[in-house]
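Justification of computing resources. Each target in the renewal requires a structure prediction run like the one illustrated here; the chain below, 790 residues long, is used simply to show the kind of job we budget for.
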Amino acid sequence: MPIQPLSSDKLYRGSALNGLDEECKSTKNLTPLDEIVGQERAQKAVEFAMSIKEKGYNIYAIGRNGLGKRTMVLRYLNRHEPNGDTAPLYDWCYVANFDDTRSPKVLKLPPRTGNEFKKDIEKLMTRLVKAIPLAFDNEMYFSRAETLKNQLVQKQENALLTLTNKAKSQSVSLSMTPQGEYQLVALNGEEPHTELTFAELPEKEQRGFQKAIDALEIELRGIVRKLTEWEETYSDKVQKLNEEVALEVIAHVIASLKEKYKHLPEVKHYIAAMQADILDNLDIFLEESEEQVALAYAALEKKMPRRYQVNVLVNQDEHKFPVVVEESPNYHSIFGYVENATYKGTVFTDFSLIRPGSLHRANGGVLMMDAVKVLERPYVWDGLKRALRAKKLNLSSLEREVTLSGAISLDPEAIPLDVKIILFGDYETYRLLQHYDPEFSELFRVTADFEDEMVRNDESEAQYARFISSIVNDNNMLHCDRKAIGRIIEYSSRQADDQNKLSLHSADIANLLRETNYVAKAANATMIRANHVEQALQNQEMRLSRLKDHVMQSFVNGTTLMSTQGEKVGQVNALSVISTSDYQFGAPNRITATTAYGEGNVFDIERSADLGGNIHSKGVMILSAYLASVFGKTAKIPLTTHITFEQSYGGVDGDSASMAELCAIVSAFSQQPLRQDIAITGSMNQFGEAQPIGGVNEKIEGFYDVCVIQGRATGQGVIIPESNVHNLMLRKDIVEAVEKGEFNIWPISHVTQALELFTGKKADEHDGENGYSSHSLFGLAQAKLNALRR
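Resulting structure tokens:
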């Protein structure tokens, strides 16, 4: 039986939307999906990871860009109840550590309390900055301070007066020099002795004066020590007085704050420490010297001492589960950093200049990042692993870690970390991390594997229609009528390269809908219809097809040699796909085979010229093995064959031309011509069986376009593997041509069927014990080979 071409109904599967009610006329009648269609497996993985609290159950979401990975995860997390089984949320603040200013302390507060506490402290400081100076500027304080001063002066004067009288009784005067030093001098009557008058005194009298002065000096030194002690006692009393006065003000103002936060031990302890520190640093409030306290008030926000500010790092909403998407995951944006400030030429930093990172904001929730971006930035991956292992967030200076300088920096207290990390990436990045980083599998134990496609049936088409409705509603587009929905589903099936599958590349569908919506609005339509979808697809094709038009032009002007009619020995039309980053199209290639007397080798010119890839070389080896099994079972094939892709200069890979190459070689062996109005695609195994290939739709369309360029003729067509029939979603013009009998698509299961179509002869017909029939293609080839052997 001759091979029958496919009927037109096998070339395209339309969408009747049998899964939708007859009353459903458009997406307006459909309930939008609240999830990404066809990703149940990935969603289960995310749900599983989110429900486990143990360390290491972070998620790596695998899949190509555009599958809706981020959208699906965000939609799931938005439904995630924060008050259910999730970790409790907290506000995190940094405050001064009054014992060690280099190590700021962390305060953990209930959600929405951080900013409130900050404002309370600001109000407190505003009151104290005014109230404390006033408390020291009244008669009562002056009176008490004056009394202490008078007591000190009185004691000092009494001690010195006693010594002065005693000295005078021994004719010695006690006086103070202009430099402020005490001086004992012998008296000559009422006047001090000069050096001359003292020298004129008898030696005994001089020794008496010297002895008296020495004794008085010893006594004077004792009194001076006492004066110093009394000064210190006085300072202590003044300090105590100041503290008592200040405490009266502070205790009154701070009492309500202590009462408000008494249920939070950390805050209560901080308020007590702050109160003690204020009493130790009253000069900041009294502003005795503006220059001394200028830096203390160098606040960037409020007129208050910097050391008492509250730096609210994270202010959480107790009713909202924190989900943070980090678009630019560098070290500072993830882990936070410490700023430097300049005031009057002085560079300084403190806890109030600590800034949060994504991990701080996502603490208690989820942080989502692109895996490749994380790995591209230096030190980020190591820092992330360190934080997840320790379950702590250390805000260490990156500069200090990567340089040898000992610059002074802060060492803030670590914040406990409870976060789920979701990395989005592709399979290659996933495999590299698994292979080269042993910690990766420990920290990212859950893989959310996103599907590229889903099974196409009535139920899935109905679900896909709801998915289309969700895109329409989310973007406030015009609604799609029933035929437009069907056309988009057909487009999705074409994207999946399978009549029985639907593409889950949601970005493609969303982009098509946006462009279709634009076309419909430009036409002043009230609803998206099938013709608008067609127009949008044509617009896409026009924008992306510059390279295709350039290639096809070479067939128009004859630059690329191609015959689509007649017959030729050792020459066959093969099909290939040319791809760019966002577009692919088919174009036929001429394959030729020539033979010469030799050892039976098949030389692949592409491989010899380093233009053939490994897979192409494997295909040539497989067809060589098949040739040997057919023609070389009893004796070596006495021909050397050379095969090549004509006018191919950019490299060839893939094995989808191996059947075409075999047909060209058999034609060269048998000297039987091959039809040039037929093109072929398909790979083969060592037994000659046809194997499926990719890009079958583009390949058929490419040859059809060349046939149109060079002139249509009855009988033109394409041979494809039978296993590729389900992949057919061809253009409308080709389906119509097949329907009219003007173009053919033959499915084959074995390479001999292709040879029969090309030559019109039976390929491997046997003639009893004599092997192949003399009328068969293999028989003719065998006869020529036997003649050469003889």
